[in-house]
Every structure is written in structure tokens, then in C-alpha cells.
TrEMBL record:
Source taxonomy: Archaea, Thermoproteota, Thermoprotei, Sulfolobales, Sulfolobaceae
Pfam families: ETF
All copies of domain Electron transfer flavoprotein alpha/beta-subunit N-terminal, residue ranges: 20-205
Gene3D superfamilies from the UniProt entry: HUPs
Source organism per UniProt: Stygiolobus caldivivus
Record GO terms (molecular function): electron transfer activity
SUPFAM superfamilies: Adenine nucleotide alpha hydrolases-like
Source taxon at top rank: Archaea
Protein name per the record: Electron transfer flavoprotein subunit alpha
Signal peptide per UniProt: none
Length: 242
């Protein structure tokens, strides 16, 4: 059976990360990166529409709760590559090795991840696999041995086609990820998860994470409107803004 692969990354829940005096508090629960959920949803829709096997590959943190969520959404199987340290190159090389053994019809990933926002991983992986790539995809259709995609290029929509196999990166508007029910959550516990331990050493390592902060002056200008405007203008001139 032909397959479609959804790539997803498990990241710290960015809505719960707090800035502390010493940096960032990353001791928060994990979640599937936002756009990667769209990738999973689209792979499952491809499975349902074209009778494909929907597989998932994740690399880095292999949080079991997040993997079970991906399976509960409808993936049939997940390959989890454990990597203590990772960069784009080593991650792509590890995933490419797994993809070559699966020979999928289509690979779907998110346009970017919520932890790094790099947006270069999918093109790099496509280069390693020598697959054609389509980015910023907001709709997908398979037509025999081709994929047709609509690309969101902000001010206009571009429709393109490519031979298969191919790799695409999707934007959030492509779908609304489903929320699994109790039945799907229970069934996910029976689905296979293949775990691989990677010893690859990244060439680029994160040495520090420093939050970007703004120190506000908290100046309050009071008085009637005309007086307040004059005071504001004088203050801005004093600050060299005007």
C-alpha cells in the first residue's frame, strides 16, 4: 500500500513558557508544533480520501503523550527518532534515512515550527531526498501520479503541480486539525511506535537562549487634552523622538 508521511516535531508548549530573571522557564508540558498538527490532519485526510497508509515521523523529543495524540488523530504508525541534541542537518539526515526505507507517495510537514520558526527544514530535507518541493500549501489534491497544490503567497494564490513522490509544507489555513474522541484515544494505544536512538552529533549547537525584553518607561502624562498633547510633544522632543 502506498503511504503518506506526516512530519511532526514535539516542542515545549509556547503558551506556557515564562520569562524569568535568568532566562526562559522551559519546564512546561510538551505539545505537537502548531503547523505540524495541520500536516498530520492533512495526511489523515489523504489516507481517508485516497486509501493511503498514513505514517508519522518525529525527531528530537519523543514525548509519548504527544505521539499518542498524533496516532489518535488517525496516523497508523509513528517512527520516533530520539535525539538529545539536534540541528537541521542531523535531523534531516536521520529522517531522510527513514523515508528512504518507506518510499512514500507524499511527505507533508508544517511550514515552520513554533520553537525555532526557521522554515528551512523542509527545503533541506527535500534536497537530501532529491524530491520536488512545494511550500506554503493551503490545499492539496492527488491526481494519479501527480499532486496539485494551491500556494498561499499572501497577495495571490498560485496553483502548481508536481510529479510524485514529493514533499510539501503546509500553512495553517489548509485545515482544522481534528480533536480525537475517547474511542480514537483508546485505539491509539494499540498502534505501533518504532523508536530509534540517534547518536548523531549536531554541527550547530544552541549555547544560550536569551529572551527579548522591552523595558518600558511607564511615563504617565496627565491633564486636559490640549495640555496633555503639549506635554507629550515636549517629552518626545526631549527624548529625541521628534
Amino acid at each position: 500500500m502506498s503511504s503518506v508521511i506526516a512530519l511532526f516535531k514535539i516542542v515545549p508548549d509556547d503558551t506556557l513558557i515564562r520569562i524569568t530573571q535568568t532566562g526562559l522557564d522551559l519546564n512546561v508540558p510538551y505539545k505537537i508544533s502548531t503547523y505540524d498538527k495541520n500536516a498530520i490532519e492533512e495526511a489523515v485526510r489523504m489516507k481517508e480520501k485516497y486509501s493511503l497508509k498514513a505514517m508519522g515521523i518525529t525527531a528530537g523529543v519523543t514525548d509519548r503523550k504527544s505521539i499518542r495524540e498524533a496516532l489518535a488523530m488517525g496516523l497508523d504508525e509513528v517512527v520516533a527518532i530520539e535525539m538529545r541534541e539536534m540541528d537541521i542537518q542531523t535531523t534531516a539526515e536521520n529522517i531522510a534515512e527513514q523515508v528512504k526505507g518507506l518510499s512514500p507517495k507524499l511527505i507533508i510537514g508544517g511550514e515552520t515550527t513554533t520553537d525555532s520558526s526557521g522554515g528551512v527544514f523542509i527545503p533541506y530535507l527535500a534536497s537530501l531526498l532529491n524530491y520536488p518541493i512545494i511550500t506554503y500549501v493551503k490545499s492539496l489534491t492527488l491526481i494519479e501520479d501527480k499532486v496539485r497544490a494551491e500556494r498561499n503567497l499572501t497577495s495571490f494564490t498560485q496553483t502548481v503541480e508536481s510529479e510524485l513522490p514529493a514533499i510539501v509544507s503546509v500553512v495553517g489555513e489548509i485545515n482544522t486539525p481534528r480533536i480525537p474522541g475517547v474511542k480514537q484515544i483508546l485505539e491509539s494505544q494499540k498502534k505501533p511506535v518504532k523508536t530509534i536512538n540517534s547518536t548523531a552529533i549536531p554541527k550547530v549547537k544552541i549555547t544560550a537562549i536569551t529572551p527579548y525584553t522591552i523595558q518600558r518607561k511607564k511615563v504617565v502624562i496627565e491633564g486636559k487634552m490640549d495640555e496633555a498633547v503639549d506635554k507629550l510633544l515636549q517629552y518626545l522632543k526631549g527624548e529625541g523622538v521628534l
